[in-house]
Amino acid sequence: MSNQKNTDQPKMRELREFVSNYSFERGHLLPALLDLQKEYGYVSKDAIEAVARQFRTSTALIYGAITFYSDIRTEPPPDREIVWCSGPACRISGGDRVRQAIEHTLNLSIDSQTSDGSYGFQLGQCNGTCSQAPQIWVDGQVCGKLSISDAIRIARDIRGDSNK
Ligand code: FES
Question: For residues 153 and 136, what is the distance between their CA atoms, to the nearest angstrom?
């Protein structure tokens, strides 16, 4: 998952040109959305309109597809981010307590970010490295075999007060 923040809003013309590389078959919708996110960091409202036009469908259908795939975001990513693995191996290994500790330390619920976009906490899926359970990703880097105190220390660092 990209954590790069692209503060430049792409113009509608640029977005239409980008999605014009995808034929309007349904099977190409997810690749188009993922590639948009890879390119711009998120799939903006304008991008959704461009995709709907390219795929000759409604924006409601595109929003529905995005809702189904938790990895696709519709807001710019925060500057710093913790992603929590919600897979079964991580949860069995104490992942729920790790999540609660991070939520408490960041004062954020999962799948949210601060209003200034400085940091966020996101739901993630198993990436197959279950031997590191329970794990999180911090700014894209795996942090595995986490204890509760590890999680709190990392969340404090993300919050910017690791020395307090
Ligand atoms: S369940 Fe967390 S990495 Fe597989």
Answer: 13
Q: Is the CB of 143 under 6 A from ligand 1?
A: no
88 C-beta closer than 6 A to ligand 1: yes
Domains defined for the chain, CATH in brackets? 12-68 (no CATH), 80-159 (3.40.30.10)
Q: What is the pLDDT of residues 21-55, one digit of tens each?
A: 888 777 899 999 999 999 998 999 999 999 999 99
Of the CA atoms within 13 Å of residue 10, those in its CB half-sphere come to 25
Q: Indicate yes or no: pTM above 0.90.
A: no
The atom number, within ligand 1, closest to the CA of 132 reads 3
